[in-house]
Amino acid sequence: MYRAKIFVKRRRTILDPQGKAIELGVKSIGISNVEDIRMDKYFELTVNENDEIVARKIVDKICDSLLANPHLEDYHFELERL
Amino acid sequence: MYRAKIFVKRRRTILDPQGKAIELGVKSIGISNVEDIRMDKYFELTVNENDEIVARKIVDKICDSLLANPHLEDYHFELERL
Fold this sequence. Notes:
homodimer, alpha+beta, Mth169, Chain: A, 2 helices, elongated
């Protein structure tokens, strides 16, 4: 059994409008020395599978099919044995 | 100068409707051994500040003021020296 910790990130060459909006918010609360803010997605899920290679394939399928937009985003994950 | 890596997570006692929706999606692609899916937020930002304690206070202020909803969410972060 594994807990997967999955990061889905917009490619760094693609504009992140939410990050830009937060940069404006940061300035509005008087902070001027913060930059390059990115907002990404983070998922956790449990795979009831003892073979790590099989668990990895299941997580890849979920990321490719549901979690990441292949045109804009990349993903990576780590598995923690439970 | 530090790169902050910030996780903003809905408290585990509070329902995560997006996670539940993804669980339905996972079942719809024929995967039945995955459960307890949570969708959280992940941010990165750069703080132009050399004192780690000051940098930590700046990130706390941004999280408390902008990134995390104190009624529903908790946050934690790590700082990586650049």
